[in-house]
């Protein structure tokens, strides 16, 4: 929930677009960026059009470190953890997509904290996508899949129920900085965002049925050349699609809200 988000952790800076979007949230008090490559950070100045010079924001701290090593060496907890590592099939990056990694992340979340994992679902087979999602569901009882761009999913997960709070979403879109941030990626209203929702944990459990989670000892995503499975199709996502849980009346203070 960005409503009460005081601290965030984001992995793999890239051009800094996600970090720049996080900076737009007025409730954000502290943000940690972890990236293994200092050259990526050094090049941030060339992408200020999309990252809005976020590295000059005093709320942001950059840590050059391996993602898992960072979590193993800190006791800090975060309200929101966002990952955009290289695609899952990239060499060695399975370490940021395995069940053990999500267990480590869960230990560093505040109560009701939310994880956001980027999943380029068109870059691996249907079975491997199911195994990647299964790794998340093995650690988190609540999840929600959004597909805001062609087969590029954003999988949210939490230890508490995720509820779409439309009144709060409308308030967010009245914040000029937030409205512009959403507009930058093609969303002009809360309904635009909600339209990208595919399924919550009920549909996702059907999606992963029979698929073993990706684990450290079973890094199946790295064996993609040996997978004869079919590519993911829109029909497969349509089969699991379900309406989101939407709170349209008074807000539910006991439950965290979706990003």
Description:
- By secondary structure, the protein is α/β, with parallel strands linked by helices.
- The chain is 31% helix and 22% strand.
- The protein has eleven helices and ten strands.
- The protein has helices at 17-23, 38-42, 48-51, 67-72, 99-106, 126-137, 166-173, 176-184, 190-194, 201-208, 234-240; strands at 7-11, 30-35, 60-64, 78-83, 109-120, 142-149, 152-158, 164-165, 197-200, 246-247.
- A hairpin with a 2-residue loop joins strand 6 and strand 7.
- The radius of gyration is 18 Å and the shape is globular.
Short structural summary:
The chain is an alpha/beta fold and 259 residues long.
Topology diagram in text:
Blueprint (H helix, E strand, L loop, with lengths): L6 E5 L5 H7 L6 E6 L2 H5 L5 H4 L8 E5 L2 H6 L5 E6 L15 H8 L2 E12 L5 H12 L4 E8 L2 E7 L5 E2 H8 L2 H9 L5 H5 L2 E4 H8 L25 H7 L5 E2 L12
Parallel strand pairs: 1-2, 1-4, 2-3, 4-5, 8-10
Antiparallel strand pairs: 5-7, 6-7, 6-9
